[in-house]
Amino acid sequence: MKWHGRLLVISPHLDDAVLSCGVLLAAHPAPFVCTVFTAAPDKNMTTDWDRQSGFADAFEAMQARKAEDVHALDLLGAFPIHLPFCDAQYKVPSMEDSLVAAIQQTLRDVKPSSVMMPMGLFHSDHTMVANACMKLMHRFGHVRMHAYEDVPYRTMPDIVPNRLRTIEELGFAAQPFDVVGVAANARHRQLKRAAINAYQSQLRAFGPDGQAGLYSSERYWRLRETDAQSNARTRPQSHNAFWTPSPNR
Questions:
Q1: Which label site among 51, 68, 102, 236 has the fewest CB atoms less than 10 Å from its CB?
Q2: Under CATH, which architecture does the 7-232 domain have?
């Protein structure tokens, strides 16, 4: 299937969109990338991941990482949008309603024809963003919604089929989706590699062994809301089915 219209990629962290969709971004004219967790905590701190990335503290880390992201997306011809939420490593609770509202406003501002969201593999931030996007699907029925397999977590044993079962249990159907010509273009693959290299701090943290899994082929899924989910939205809910615990990055 060919890709038409304005593309918006939803990225949990400052690198996820490029790692998981970099070839697609390079192939598409003027796409938008909305990254959710780009804020430093109100109170400065130092985490293991930030130290491994080469930073003294969270304030330095987030400032540098946003600059890396702007550079990486510029190489791909993409426009960055940074939302003011803190990722799980900073132990700052993200209110789901606020996150859903912020993504909804981004969709209204960008007015995309197609959206790529994370599948929500392994990391709690990824799952939270994926679930927030699914909660919005019925409000944007005219938008084509897709999920990308989150790199590097997609290589973990059984992680994709397990997540597909969870997505089905939440009331959504997922079908494999192929974008014609995206993976075959050598120039686009080169641009993705250059964009990944722009995230020097994250490459340091991944280390040589972790970097090997960052260049796997991209895989996408077409999402739609099932009739069961549509009916469930009309019934009162006794609990929040979208909460997941938050491991460190």
A1: 236
A2: 3-Layer(aba) Sandwich (3.40)
